């Protein structure tokens, strides 16, 4: 299986409380396995507050809905041994 790497990493974002924010990370291969999103070292699941999806096979996105002050912190995207943070 090819080693999936991060082609385009996360960008820092400034958001107003109550707004949604989307983070994007592009990887080198489609159908990447072993992918994980974290906020402040807590693994995120796809639910009503966090929308995790893949666009065009390689662009992994995380949308945090209606952010609050508790959402301030580091967002981490990991694929295999590679990580990107914002």
Automatic annotation (TrEMBL):
The keyword Mitochondrion does not apply. It is found in: Cytoplasm. Keywords: Cytoplasm, Disulfide bond, Phosphoprotein. Transmembrane segments: none annotated. It comes from the Eukaryota. GO terms for cellular component: cytoplasm. Pfam families: I-set. Residues 2-86 form the Ig-like domain. InterPro entries: Ig-like_dom, Ig-like_dom_sf, Ig-like_fold, Ig/MHC_CS, Ig_I-set, Obscurin/Obscurin-like_Reg. This is OBSCN protein. It comes from Falcunculus frontatus (Eastern shriketit).
